[in-house]
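This protein record is not my work; I was only asked to verify it. The record follows directly below this note.
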Amino acid sequence: MNREYHKWFSQNLQRDMELLVFGHAGRAVIFFPTRMARFYDYENWGIIASLSAQIENGELQIFCVDSIDGESFYNGEVFPSVRIERHLQYERYLLEEVLSLIYQKNNGDYIETAGCSMGAYHAINLALKYPWLFKKAVGISGRYDLTYNIGDFRDLMDGFHNDRVYFNMPAQYIANLNDDQLLSAVRNMEIILAVGETDPFLSENQHLSNLLWEKGIPNQFYTWESNAHRPHYWRKMAPMYI
């Protein structure tokens, strides 16, 4: 299996950023790490190995990007408006720098997003905001509104809300999405949501799926046994959905 390590200074983030690439061809996948995790964790957890057949035969090329959630949503030392601005800098890094690398490394025209846990939020949010760039989005064990408390998972905006927060919470903005051109692009994407039947985010996944259907946006929704919010399950899910 082709494996590449890349590191460069991001102008958007003003810091070094790292990522791993697995594979040589096929559908390009931006694979977002879990909450506070790193770009190498999916490899360490055996999730890349679970995709090895698809990677080696040229079906998939995986781009495991790093996270800066500790500087944005989980940075309790700064005001929430600063957190969301840092997240938007990360978004620009993805759109301007990571996609540039993908265009260099991959000759196809099929790019998808995927992620588990917090990575699912990033995958679904980015694809819904820029659907003309992506053909598919996969959210596994995800949370799609970070602004309220769910069990042990707190409101990451501490009650703060503005337009920038709103337009980065899929469970909020999808309900009011009326732009025909944007809706058409979203409807052309394949969207997959998967979550455990006892996962605290189950109802949120059901809610997002229903919101999408209400807007005429097809999506696939899968419920797994138990909590299913750990690498043991993600190793099974990834080959099925990514």
Summary: The longest strand covers residues 3-10. Residues 3-241 form a domain with the Rossmann fold fold (CATH 3.40.50.1820).
